[in-house]
Amino acid sequence: MIQIKDLHKSYKMGKNSLHVLKGINFNVEEGELVAIMGSSGSGKSTLLNILGMLDELDEGSYTLDGVPIKNLNETKAAQYRNKFLGFVFQSFNLINYKSAAENVALPLYYQKVPRKERQEKALKYLAQVGLKEWANHLPSELSGGQKQRVAIARAMAAEPKVLLADEPTGALDSTTSYEVMDLIQKINDQGNTILIVTHEPDIADMCKRIVHLKDGVIIEDKKIEQVRAAKYV
Amino acid sequence: MGFLFDRNTWQEIFGSISKNRTRTIITVIGVLWGIFIYIALSGAAKGLDNGFDKVFKTVAINSMFVWAQSTSMPYDGFKTGRPLQLKLEDVKTIQNRIPEVQYIAPRITQGQFGSEPVYTVRGQKYGSYVLNGDYPIYTKISTKKIYDGGRFINQEDIDQARKVIVIGERVEQELYNKDENPVGTWIRVGSVYFQVIGVHKLAQGVSFDSDSAMFIPFTTYQKLYNSGDNIGYMCIAAYDDVDVVQVEKDIKTLLRNIHRVDPKDERAFGSFNLGEAFSKTMGFADGLTFMSLVVGIATILAGVIGIGNILLISVKERTKELGVRRALGATPAEVRNQIVMESVFLTVIAGILGIILGAGVLALINSLTKDIDFPYTNPTVPIPYVIGALVIMVVLGTLIGLIPAQRAVSIRPIEALREE
Asked: pTM for this one?
């Protein structure tokens, strides 16, 4: 699903250049649930941003579902993001003046899905995350865990190839974190490819594979026995 | 441009502008005020314009008076200071020689310009009034409103030198009781009895004659005062499309020629050019219209800039939202369109509200000024001006909207999302 070869990325800060990713080689198969771990500054968010086409790579190659991702202009990147990727952010990033259902329907709007179908799909995905009754509530009326579940529903609504989650449980307490992880595991069980950036070992343990980043290189890449979050819920 | 007709586009726009009501309302008020000022000002200017039009309607716009004075230069053997006298033949000569003249009415007058007013008696009542000897053509130059049942002097009066008289409103008030009808009665003017054939109403606005003037046929006046072919002054109306100042010059040149006056003697003949005075007044009204246009458009501009400003701030506020939208697959063009459409939509809504408000205020002004004696009539704004203003607003709204839109697009989604 994802092939990354010899990926380099550096940021220019004035005269200094900060070499963040120093040659990453990394493949993800369909249906994997991968945790990208590392302390802050290890480059894990940068990697995710590049995967999410929110940032450009300097060197190396990135292929997503057989499509080489390079030299994209903003319009093309936006279309690819819309078609291939679903995003879940640490701070949820729901649009605060739109109801839960409208938030979920937003990527479908950019896919030019007709309105009626959009609403139906939004409700369907909200039901999957168990928030059907909250469809008409604004984000401000939802709890943190609920917000993140809406965000996951939104990411799933576009039926992406890969779901990218940047610290999805970072802003949540542990019980809520496990609820969210339970949901992510269930989505993964349906065959969806998911990448999670996290620095919490318990969250990483709930994935099927852990990629450990340190100072811009992968120091460890191992398959693990998945801990089911349902146990803690 | 298909997105313009897409219901979804509008839903997104509505969503984001109804989100922040205060912001939207303040923004709208900015433009609303601009277009309101524009409409109210240009409407008011138009009202004044119409008012002047109405005032001048009672007289031919391109009209003038010409009278004789005395020479101020010696010429052709005559010494300086020779008094001049206009004659009836001069009228014919002018009519024949100057094709721009539409109507020319000679008039002889007693009681004006230093001569004694005419002592007029009816029974126990009396007064002294101006007496004019006139031709019927005079009404072509200065409209005379005659009260019910009366008439002005006609050609038969002239031909037969009838002893008939048209009296002014004040003459009527002073010589008659309130419930009396003067038409058909007799009054004594000087030593001769005249039958009253009409009472002229003082025209609203510009009038050549006071309400104490009386009019008799020119021929009757000639007999009464033995004035021969002498005339007091000429009232001349030129055609509407000619340069009235030039006509005035031509007439005076011709008169100098006829009366053997030095061609350079500007003081031999006096004149008053109403057309020139009128065009000055209309020039003032035009200037006012132009100024109101400039002020109005400047105010609209200020309002639209206000919209741009507020959208710019709102784009800053919404950086994250726009970043999320782009992460979810909004293309830069879609984001740009949305911001521009928000700007245009707000501008147009504000514009329409402003036009309605402005029209309401103009209607109010109209009803308030209806009965007052002030040259102000029917304040309206021509439709092309309104449409022009709307077009200007849409164009400006688009241009101004492009600034925040470009800003929104220039922020890369990753930077937008990073902003906490």
From this structure: 0.66
Residue B290 lies in a domain: yes
List chain B residues with CB under 8 Å of A111.
329
Dig out the tokens for B223 from the structure: 């007999």
What is the maximum alpha-carbon separation in chain B? 107
Tokens of B408: 């929104």
Do B78 and B162 lie in one domain? The reply is no
Quick: pLDDT tens for B223-252.
Answer: 888 888 888 888 888 888 888 888 888 888
- C-beta separation of A152 from A88 below 8 A: yes
At residue B207 the predicted structure's pLDDT band, cuts being 50, 70 and 90, is low
Q: Collect all residues of chain A within an 8 Å Cβ-Cβ radius of residue B7.
A: 115
Nearest to B15 by CA among B306, B325, B402: B325
Q: Is residue B65 part of a domain?
A: no
| Cβ-based neighbours of B184, under 8 Å, separated by 6 or more | B195, B196
Residue A107: list chain B partners with CB under 8 A. 328-329
The pLDDT tens digits for A15-34 are 888 888 898 898 999 999 99
Q: How does B387-403 read in b/e, with b if 16+ C-beta sit within 10 Å? A: eebbebbbebbbebbbb
Give the closest residue to B358 by CA, choosing from B30, B42, B26, B24: B42
Q: What is the ipTM of this complex?
A: 0.86
- Bridge partner residues of B129 (DSSP): B118
Same domain assignment for residues B126 and B249: no
pLDDT of residue B275: 76
Residue range of the domain that includes B127? 102-234
* Cα distance between the two ends of chain B: 35
- Residue to substitute from B319, B325, B328, interface A, most A β-carbons within 10 A: B328
Residues A178-194 have pLDDT tens digits of 989 999 999 999 989 99
Angle between helices B274-317 and B21-56 (to 10 degrees): 180
Q: Which DSSP symbol is given to B135?
A: -
Q: Are residues B263 and B229 located together in one domain of the fold?
A: no
What's the total number of domains in chain B? 3
**CB count, 10 Å around CB of B179?**
5
pLDDT, tens digit, 9 for 90 and up, residues B149-205: 788 888 988 898 889 999 888 888 888 888 888 888 899 988 889 999 988 877 655
